[in-house]
Amino acid sequence: MLETTSVGSFPKPDYLVKARRDRQQGKVSPDELTTVERRATEEWIRIQERIGIDILVHGEMERGDMTTFFAELLDGYGISGLVRSYGNRYYRKPIIQSTLSRPRPMTTDWHCWVQSLTTMPVKGMLTGPYTMCDWSFDEHYPSRRDAVLALAEIVRDEAHDLEAAGARYIQIDEPAISTRPDEIELAIEAMEVVTAGLKATTISHICYGDFAMMYPRILDLPVDMLDLEFANSQFANLDIFRKPKFTKRISVGVIDVHSHVIETKGQVKDGIRRALDVFDPALVWIDPDCGLKTRTPQEAIDKLTVMVEAVKEIKQEMGL
Amino acid sequence: MFQTTLVGNQPKVFEDPACGAPGVNLRLARNRFDQGRITAAELEDVVRATIRATLDDQARAGLDWLTDGRIRWDDPVTPFAAAHEGFTIGGLIRYFDNNVYYRRPTIAGPIRFVRSAVADDYRFASSAGRGRVIPSVCGPFSLAKFCVDEYYHKEEALYADCAALVRGELEALADAGADWVQLDEPYLGRCPDEIDAAVTAISAATIGVDVRVFVHTYFCPIEGIGDHLWRLPVHAIGADCATVPGNFEALIHGPKTMGRGFGLVDARTTRLETADQIVRQLERLAAAGAADWPACFITPSAALEFLPYPSAIAKMRRLVAAVCQFLGVACGAS
Prior knowledge:
The complex is a heterodimer.
Chain A: E1 3-4, H1 14-24, H2 30-51, H3 68-71, E2 75-86, E3 89-101, H4 108-115, E4 124-127, H5 129-134, E5 137-138, H6 144-164, E6 169-173, H7 184-195, E7 201-206, H8 211-214, E8 225-229, E9 249-253, H9 265-276, E10 284-287, H10 297-317
Parallel strand pairs in A: 1-10, 3-5, 4-6, 6-7, 7-8, 8-9, 9-10
Antiparallel strand pairs in A: 2-3
Helix pairs in contact in A: 1-2, 6-7, 9-10
Chain B: E1 3-4, H1 26-34, H2 40-61, H3 78-83, E2 85-94, E3 101-112, H4 119-126, E4 136-138, H5 140-146, E5 148-149, H6 155-175, E6 180-184, H7 195-206, E7 212-216, H8 226-229, E8 236-240, H9 246-252, E9 259-265, H10 275-287, E10 296-300, H11 309-327
Parallel strand pairs in B: 1-10, 3-5, 4-6, 6-7, 7-8, 8-9, 9-10
Antiparallel strand pairs in B: 2-3
Helix pairs in contact in B: 1-2, 5-6, 6-7, 10-11
């Protein structure tokens, strides 16, 4: 009850930012970059252990954008130029240029290595098929449905490989699912392909959309847990989930990842209390709204620390 | 017969060596400004160089009407809200069905026009000597819809004050010498139940203002509201005809007295239309009497900022090339 976790990404330390830039300019080899990525990943594992987080993430030090990372590892994808996502932030949006296929597992080696660093469970992190399609240009498939279902088979294979590699928790992020309510059936159909037969606990992170438009249909997304953001909207979204009753496990975002301001413990506790007024406490995990990669490392550490301390105090108040 | 132009925000980052301005990097400059490493004046220099570069690229492509690309704007509404009274800036929300987000303004008090958010950029762009410039402004109905209303609680009053604010912007642009203004109304087709209120708001913003107004809707169908749109006291109505084919027919069947704009290339895919595809649509427009309409703009379906810069350039060039092919003239002389 009230386990703490993170959504996925953490900020990259300056030495890794430099190494990635050096790699782009051909100044360091792929192996040298990997060494730096491993160093940063291990640091984030130790930080999470020190803070006292229950279910860890590897922090995505080896990834840039959550779509582009996978697109670069799949056959059939090309990578376009920079496209803005918000403010002054850009990503290289992938282009589906031919039939997609997965030449080899994309995340299992890294997951196994990270899990070997800690006794705490580490989530396996994937981007869902609907989001992979929605955040790509498609110059190949005749319809969005064709593209989404082709990607669903690829993500399914990766998820099963992660499970076989020992992942107890597999997160299949679908932030784009809140984009088009008229396509939620397609998103559900694709997730059915991905999660069929999985025994690991499955989680899907969705954020920054109009939840009212997709609730309660979103409860039919075939995953064990939904991970939603609340802090950025000052918990105004909570009321949406009062009726009908929310029946899934839920990770409640209580930290605004788009603010430099570190929440006070009182603010976080207030948010948790408000969430527990809506959701069954036995089904709730606590985490930030989204990946923390846009914050500085110290801001991310401070925010996670406040979150864990707030959860501890709430648990004490509840006699847990 | 046909006049080519763009819609809304253009890409701000140049990656094609043949486009943009060598050495101008607005993304980097904004990062440095955020880190306190350059001054506001130094950032402003880069913003203006970027506007000049996007004007250059549009002029080279041969567009009839250029835009400043809204280089200073991250979305159609937040800087607009920042320039006037009554708004605070809130949390992130997705910009329609795009993988683009903006901070949603909250209306926390009475909306009052303070100073134009667009007139200075219009003056700068139009004085750059690259060609005729058409500025764009968020329309009153969409402005209200983009925001969270925590003050008015009555839509009639909210829309009326949004209309007064937009009217102030249009008057400022008229004073600055604008001939046409593009009024972005992406919410028009998304809220058919409120079309009467929308028409009232747009009318209040535009009647009697000394500038021609081109209302552009995008991301939405207009078939169901066409009759209402034709009642608007504006000079042209535009719509996305690339991804909503029914809009093409709806626009064609409007009254002869109204100008119109056809978004014929899809601004949200890198898949490039062929010139022949566009020419076939131009042929249909000509057969429908486009030469007799007060204006017939040929545009992308929406802002090209959803594309990487090279694709955006390719789209605008293809648009112009198709019009030139139809007219049988050399590109740049459409």
